[in-house]
Amino acid sequence: MTDSVTLEVIRNACIAVCEEMNANLIRTGYSPNIKERRDCSCALFDAEGEMISQAENMPVHLGAMPFSVAAAIDRFPPETLSPGDAILLNDPFYGGAHLPDLTLVTPVFHETADGDTELVAFAANRAHHADVGGARAGSVAADSTEIYQEGLRIPPVKLFEGGEPNESVFDMVLSNVRTPDERRGDLRAQEAANQTGKRRFLELVEKYGLETLTEALDEIQEYSEARMRAEIDELADGTYEFSDVLDDDGLGNEDLRIQAAVTVDGDSVTVDFEGTADQTEGPVNAVLAVTASATYYSVRCVTDPDIPPNHGCYRPIEVKAPEGSIVNPEPPAAVVGGNLETSQRVTDVVLGAFAQQAPERVTAAGQGTMNNITFGGTDPRTDTPYAFYETQGGGFGGRVGTDGMDGVHVHMSNTMNTPVEVLETAYPLRVRRYELRQDSGGPGEFRGGLGIRRDIQVRDHEAHFSLLADRHTHQPYGLEGGEPGESGAAELETADGETRRLPQKSTHELPPGSTVRIRTPGAGGYGDPADRDPEAVRRDVRHGKVSRAAARAAYGVDVAAGAAAGVEAAAGEPYEPTDDAEGDDD
Amino acid sequence: MHVNEDARIGVDIGGTFTDLVTIADGAVRVHKTPSTPSDSERGVMDGLEGVAARYGIDPEDIGFFGHGTTVATNAVLEGEWADTALVTTAGFRDVLEIGRQARPDIYDFDAEKPTPVVERDRRYEVVERLDERGEVVEPLDEASVEALASELADVDSVAVSLLYSFENDAHEQRVKELLRAQGVDASFSLSSRVLPEIREYERTLTTGLNAALKPVMDSYIGRLETRVAEEGVGTDVKIMQSNGGIITADAARDRPVNTLLSGPAAGVQGATYVAGLAGIEDCITMDMGGTSCDVSLVEGGDPLVTTDVEVGDYPVSVPMIDIHTVGAGGGSIAWTDAGDALRVGPRSAGAEPGPVCYGRGGERPTITDAHAMLGRIDPSRFLDGPSPDDAVRQAVRDHVADELDMGVAEAAQGILDVANANMARALRVVSVERGYDPRDFGLVAFGGAGPLHACKLARELEVPRVVIPRTAGVLSALGLLISDVLYDYSTSKVRPWTDVEPRTLAESFTTFRERGSDRLDTEGGTADSLQFERSVDLRYAGQSFELTVPVPGGEVDEDTLETVVERFHDRHRQRYGHAYEDEPVELVTVRLRARGVVDTPDLHPEPVEGTVDDAVRETRDVVYDGRTHETRIYDRRLLPTGTGFDGPAIVEGTESTVVVHPDQAASVDEYGTLLVEVNA
Q1: Which three-class secondary structure state does DSSP give residue A120?
Q2: Burial of residue B286 (number of CB atoms within 10 Å: 0-12, 13-18, 19+)
Q3: Overall domain count for chain B
Q4: Could you list the residue range(s) of the whole structural domain that residue B126 is in?
Q5: Are residues B247 and B197 in the same domain?
Q6: Which alpha helices (H) appear in B195-330, and where do they start and end?
């Protein structure tokens, strides 16, 4: 038994190792996905492949990385590994999540007194690469039907052997991607980050001795497990069911149901997705690692967020997902959107089930999508090809005591946006409007957060555009009497003024001068709107977040004309009578 | 800068004490007086009177008055600022509220985004649009501006932030003119002046904060100037800004957002200076006070400067000394969490009631109490009443030892180990994570608690040498006296480096240089003490992180551009481990720093004569890492210049206590600085 001081010191030291790996990866990474959006994570695992600590940027990576290490160990058992090896993988059906996420797992060997080497840990990191080949630049194709169209599929392979790069593997990977130099740079950065992790971990072995350290790492996991179990124990026993749908898969298959039965039994939780829709043709199938990750995230959110994240947190949680369903598909299902969209709905469903036993611990549904958009074409200013990918925030769910945040990434995503000035400087696009959507937050005692409106115009050239979003049909749910958030929408306005609606998962060729208007969903409200403090309603009207009409209809609060002055009156363009302005329609 | 023979005084208002350092006739003198938070100028007046009474330096003798202020910082932390409006480009009024879309905490549903600096109904749009080169896409609709005048009649301050104002400020200037003409008499902050740099959220936020703080700073400085003048001080008040440079009071009134780290920046300046006197140009500074520990890195005698700092959850993008803060201070409280792990901080006992050993009613054990229990500090030295040893022991037992089923001494050591683990992480953040190896640096420790921890932390990070300044507790005030006058000018001009013409770059530098010269001239500068440091921020096209690269002196020509891009590749290789010489490079921002060099005073104290033995106050048992050693307790004031002694040792100064561990060796240099060899 390690004393609690040493435990706390070692725990801090392990976090510091992961943070240093992370800083190293972000500093040396080449692509903007790593450097600016921070779509990457680093972690340490013990010799059994159980997670010790993690530097967290992306929630969706959190619970999925252990699957990568497990796959690496499965393919390369310890006796086949040597110092200086590093295993690369991205196969969603063998340790990965979706193809753009490349994970590198480095075994850490300790030299024993008699000169032997002993496997003591793994350093691992995952980074979202800007392109891994496949049918579409950026490898986030909204119209893929098989994984083969989504890019290069890499099972666990040794990218480094005995400290030397495996040039055959490098050649193989780099021959199949659109920007090989950038990929090589990012892979080198991933390797450098793991080397840092390895070096720092071995310093800990040196300092504390292997036996003490190993024992402490076990106890750190037991500590998290014990705290997790204590929190779960506070929840009432029982089985709680909830279901919601993905609107469609982009190929006409609609209302794809995700069903969860959450069973709390003493200090453990089982989440069973029996009843969930069969895997589908379009790219919204979420592999088990993604489903498990979304489930772990949800359970972590309803317990104490202060509990240190490591394998111990997951031990009380069992995930059952029927094979061949959209939450555990079989190859060759298309999966790129499973990580981006389906993961969000899994979170909505698991949190919805928890809401029935502990509504005070959850939020109403957030926007429930990442609103992925990709523009591509040739920049007329420089005559060079470009590809621009970004995701959009929306409403965060209302919760006990507080309104939901407006215009943020929710649940499984937490990347940063691209500044308008950076976007327009780098790409031949113009942002016409970027604002919060009035009346998009679900009414409630605690209002749901507002969605975003972002209008992007294509300048002087023809562009390829693809949209991968959800929640355009079914609205994010409210809780405890709160009402749903407004759904999302997308429209295309051509240069001659014609407007048409764009399906939420679709690809288009856009003529010069056309504008895509993206509206992201608002979030569900929490509690009966009639119980909302009228002062808060008046403040929302004053801020233009709720229209006077909606204040009257949803909250029964009359706000005098003039109280909402300023904003609309002063707005430059005539205020467009879109769904945003009409308030509580349909 | 003209340096006269008059006394110079640095005044730093901290949470607990207001520190005053004077330099007159070659002598450095220190005075402390309690801070008076409800009326902070009163503490300054008390201090001036104290200095006069104690050292005979009258207000009339003072020829330089430097001040570090927390007035802007406190206003931000408390969200108490002026009624402010924002005018922005049509379609973009929510940029300020949406921010960068990331939420503050991944798992905590209760985490909130910071409140927008300007509320939504106070954010107004005007019709206009520029493109990325500053060309007018849509002209400014003047009627849309004039229509705002009645709305703005009652605000104190107006921020104007239009897209691409850093490329072309004509629309922002015109908005101000039109509103002024319509009778709006609020003060204005234009983004093209406050932060003419790319990235609309950061620019708008910084401009909005500046506007919100202007009336606060104006009234504070007004009160201070009046009181100081009434006291008889004949010179103008100068203010420390966050980049480590001194500016005039009027400049601070105009740009309060540049003073958010005024006090801490002064501390780093002071520490850098003292380390430099000891021959250490590369150092990590560590300022550990009652509630937190500020850490920063100094390379080649210059503190690293960043434009990526958060103040009270707001990312403020003006140049500031890169200071990383952790919630570990002498008053940080030790506690056990739901899983029986020992935690320290971030909650602090503060100045009131303070640690248990202060005997002022504190009941929760703190870091300071752990030191007291292990014999490192002697509370009776700063207490009138009986030593509260029993109370300290009881607190550690009740709140830590019993909970964790360990001995009291072991628990006290545990509190220190856990706190050190937190701080070691912070030291790694500023060094290792920025690409620096701590083994190449010295560690300068100051603040009330810094010297208690430094020698242990240095061993942990393999820092070879620790520097503990004689005036460790008042380095911020000292920093005010030795810092140069600095004005930073910048503008973003994003374009391929191959499109940059020497002439246009030279024009930017010339414009900045003229503005800088004018500014320094009006402050009584002389030409031979002015310096201009030119630099550009470059990146590989498509990347989003820039590196600042110095531009060599002389005329800007094609060769200059070539040199600069080579320096960029070199710097990229140094910081990130690789460079891409074939990749296109992009210019992002052009910068110039105007520096009025201040003659630094001679800090030689009167040499202390005698022997090391004379300085021994007593001998007592002190615990280091679980082992008890009989330890000599030295009186720092009596340690003779140029002598040395071995650890274990405790050195008691007037402001802080130094713990020198066994196997370490200490010496006193000619400036009274204590130098500790970590692995002697």
Answers
A1: strand
A2: buried
A3: 4
A4: 81-213
A5: no
A6: 200-231, 249-254, 262-277
